[in-house]
Design goal:
alpha+beta, 685 residues, 4-stranded antiparallel β-sheet, 20 strands, single chain
């Protein structure tokens, strides 16, 4: 028997449809029912490719005793954080306030009358272990507390809501131009330190930090680290490490070690889009490592083969876990990707296996539960022997050789994964929903890689996805965040607006003759400004003015996480739009946005690298007007604060015009002169 979630569009919610817990989706009826019955709300937030979310679904949420108690004493609500990042952001902040740490699954207890949280945690086991209490004991203790400690409950909630409201309203600040330059240096220094190799802990891509560190490496900032070298090392870690799938392409979420060896195996679209853009930008600075080009090309092939819908948009994610065989009860982590030594002996010639062991971290004992994650030991070009060996392993995994495998259909749920007659291994489940923000990150990555590597296919894939969003994501004239098999739904949030506008501007930058991308960006920006701009505070709210009634606080995203902050991206977009349109209203909004977040940039530069990227755009913005031929020659170069405009109306004897913000330099007389002006304009500190 299934619960209400069986009708949900979200794969994550449907995974809980057979739980004995009487789950509700987040909706007005659920909230009203909790108030009418005076039941505290148990809110559980996660996402489909989250490993510990899956574990808790199979353990505590499937336990009959827990379900009976939960159904009697609580109103249980399930939320897919990818559908409602606004809810997730608020309650994740509350969890961090209460426990000092965050993560998913996010399990939080709310008072029904005001939706203010009073307790929160992440993974709860059925029985006490790992230093965590058993879930039933937690539920019983919290229900007693809710019923008997009303005064303490109100005091606790008051502290939490005060903290949430305080963090949502930031002090603004003003600085002089000199202070701006010092602030930018501080942000660059902080981000460079953040991505400097560590000897402990997990290894995350952290692309908003690498992006700022790379763009800041063009300045003459004095610091104990070599910014360019640190950025190059991050590129090598990504392209050579086990975080990259050297057979099928695409990047996993992160590695569980400081050596970039063993990944947490899910593949998220948002990571791949950002990493492709970063590796292309790193290449454009002159660090033309063959492994970077190979990783980008392999990721695009994976995207085209496994993550692109027939309509042209990109799927959201692939799970970390997969089934070893169709009769298995539960999937296992990494099964689709790793190799036992005996398998390698059977599939490869002795010469191929020897070279594989020389170039990759392959041993008889393995590096992951007795099996091998492939991690390259050296940079450079792979030999023909190694490419042949990897091709054989690809065929063993997929059941077909890579040359003839145009499309690999997704397993949309566990049942499909187990019952489809796969020619090779059983693949991980793919979450096939379309998320505007994540598609936009991939479009930006493809657009930049197309310009740098001169690959028309990359631009073609990016344009198809952008056109799908433009043609399908409006309902009653309003922009929508998600698409489930042709149905657009959920009003767009700030990250959807900001990242799609950036994607459109990036498409324009890779092909400046295509004016339609700029026109679309202007139209989306108009809606963004109308419904999400904060007139009182500056910056953009996470949610629109007509869809925030169910939120206890209306936030403005400024902190970068796995994805860049909406306001950081949005402010940079405003500067780019001002340059391309000569409309200074955009520049006014950018100035107000930076002022709104100036205090947090001073106080916590480690939290907001994308705001510093926006400050770089604001301070060093450069418009280059020239001919199509000359612009096309500039596109592959690293000009991180420049935009291009094609014109045939140049002063006689000149090859281009360079404008710094609101002033233009003397016409450039030759290509060398033009490049000198551009480089100086990009570093006006």
């Amino acid at each position: 028997m299934t619960n209400r979630l069986a009708e949900a569009k979200s794969l994550y919610l449907r995974k809980h449809a057979e739980n004995p817990i009487d789950w509700w989706p987040w909706c007005d009826e659920a909230l009203a029912t909790a108030r009418a019955q005076n039941k505290p709300i148990f809110l559980s937030i996660g996402y489909s490719s989250c490993h510990w979310c899956t574990v808790m679904e199979g353990e505590a949420f499937s336990d009959i005793a827990i379900a009976d108690y939960m159904n009697t004493n609580y109103l249980p609500i399930k939320v897919d954080r990818e559908e409602r990042p606004d809810l997730d952001s608020i309650y994740m902040q509350a969890l961090q306030m209460m426990s000092g740490q965050g993560g998913w699954p996010l399990n939080i207890f709310l008072s029904p009358e005001d939706l203010v949280p009073f307790y929160a945690g992440t993974y709860f086991p059925v029985d006490p272990r790992y230093g965590r209490p058993g879930f039933l004991q937690v539920l019983q203790a919290l229900r007693r507390y809710y019923d008997t400690e009303k005064a303490d409950l109100q005091q606790r909630k008051a502290l939490i809501i005060e903290s949430l409201l305080t963090s949502a309203v930031l002090e603004d600040g003003t600085t002089t131009e000199l202070e701006d330059h010092e602030l930018l240096r501080q942000g660059w220094e902080t981000s460079t330190r953040v991505i400097t190799p560590s000897q402990s802990g997990n290894s995350f891509p952290m692309i908003p930090y690498t992006e700022l560190a790379l763009r800041g490496s063009r300045f003459n900032f004095e610091y104990r680290y070599d910014g360019k070298q640190v950025c190059t090392q991050r590129g090598l870690d990504l392209a050579l490490g086990g975080i990259y799938d050297h057979l099928g392409g695409g990047f996993h979420r992160y590695t569980v070690d400081p050596t970039w060896t063993v990944p947490h195996f899910e593949k998220m679209l948002y990571d791949n889009g950002q990493i492709v853009e970063y590796l292309a930008s790193l290449w454009s600075t002159g660090v033309q490592e063959p492994a970077f080009e190979r990783a980008v090309a392999g990721t695009v092939l994976w995207l085209k083969r496994e993550m692109t819908a027939p309509e042209g948009y990109f799927y959201a994610a692939q799970d970390a876990d997969s089934f070893t065989e169709s009769t298995a009860v539960e999937p296992e982590e990494g099964t689709f990707y790793v190799w036992s030594y005996s398998e390698l002996q059977q599939l490869l010639t002795p010469e191929e296996l020897t070279e594989l062991q020389q170039q990759f971290t392959v041993t008889p004992n393995g590096n992951f539960e007795g099996r091998n994650v492939l991690q390259r030991r050296h940079s450079g070009q792979l030999s023909a022997t190694l490419e042949t060996a990897l091709s054989k392993l690809f065929t063993a995994r997929y059941g077909v050789n890579s040359e003839s495998l145009e499309t690999f259909p997704p397993a949309r749920n566990n049942q499909e994964a187990k019952t489809t007659n796969w020619p090779g291994r059983i693949p991980s489940v793919t979450d096939t929903k379309m998320i505007v923000a994540w598609n936009s990150l991939m479009i930006s990555g493809l657009a930049r890689a197309a310009g740098v590597f001169q690959q028309p296919l990359y631009l073609e894939l990016a344009a198809r996805a952008a056109n799908f969003i433009w043609e399908n994501q409006f309902v009653d004239g309003r922009f929508q965040r998600l698409n489930y098999q042709g149905e657009a739904t959920v009003l767009a949030q700030s990250e959807d607006y900001a990242l799609f506008i950036k994607a459109l501007l990036d498409l324009q930058a890779s092909n400046p003759e295509q004016k339609q991308w700029l026109e679309k960006a202007i139209a989306i920006q108009d809606e963004f400004n109308e419904f999400l701009w904060s007139v009182e505070l500056g910056g953009y709210y996470n949610t629109s003015s007509d869809s925030s009634q169910d939120l206890i606080v209306r936030e403005r995203s400024y902190a970068d996480n796995a994805t860049p902050s909406a306001n950081g991206i949005a402010i940079a977009n405003l500067v780019r739009l001002a340059l391309l349109t000569d409309n200074l209203d955009y520049l006014d909004l950018a100035e107000l946005g930076l002022k709104a977040f100036r205090s947090v940039m001073h106080r916590a530069p480690q939290a907001c690298p994308s705001l510093f990227t926006a400050l770089d755009w604001y301070r060093n913005s450069t418009l280059i007007r020239s001919t199509t031929e000359q612009i096309n020659a500039l596109i592959p170069k690293h000009l991180p604060a420049a935009v291009f405009a094609i014109t045939s109306d140049l002063p006689e004897g000149s090859v281009g015009l360079v404008c710094q913000g609101l002033k233009c330099l003397a016409p450039a007389e030759n290509v060398e002169h033009l490049l000198q002006q551009v480089q100086k304009s990009q570093n006006r500190g």
